[in-house]
Amino acid sequence: MSKFIVIEGLDGSGKSTQARRLAEFFASRGNPCFATRQPSDDRIGSLAREATYGVFPAENETLSLLFAAEHYQHYCGKIAPALARGETVICDRYYYSNFVYQGVDAPTLERVFAYNYAVMAARTPDMVIFIDVEPEECMRRINANREQISIFETLEKLQTQRKRFLSLFERICDKENIIIIETENADENTVFEKILNKVKVLGSVAPESPLSCTS
Fold first, then answer.
1. Number of compact structural domains in the chain
2. What residues contact residue 156 under an 8 Å CB cut-off, 6+ apart?
3. Which residues contact 114 (CB under 8 A, 6 or more apart)?
4. Alpha-carbon distance 212 to 203, whole Å?
5. pLDDT tens digit string along 12-24?
6. Of 43, 47, 78, 144, which is most buried, counting CB atoms within 10 Å of its CB?
């Protein structure tokens, strides 16, 4: 059976790189794999992405609804069909980022929960991997490597987002499979090995064996 794996992390944490490497690993073992991201490259996702880069002004509540719509449409249109085909899905971000980025206060966070869980809770990911990198290091990488910086990429916002991610995972850890990958003094390859060790447990295979998509 297929698996649904989400990679989360702050901007600059290396999550996109690790999601790509994990998808390549599955493919190299002959496991059908669909790699994707949110916001997606579909029309709703592209609109959401434009909002994060300040292409047009949008209220926080508007972003909450827009991202919730993107998550649902992307799941129904791309993720669910891939899972039905027996493919493992690797998704760079999911609705957890919506909770963190738009849940700016307690009442708003509860509304974001309602938006997403009302339609998404029927198929939560098999594993959510959070790559925990200090905000200062994320900001250093962003400044060194990005030509375009989003409205969420400041040190203060990254610090706030990390606290929200950890608080969120504590809240939902009893109903979702959350894995936090510590990255202090770890290079990209070491982080990837940590992720593989967790994914192999999910697939119930030995480290030297081809990954299986069976339960």
1. 1
2. none
3. none
4. 5
5. 999 999 999 999 9
6. 78
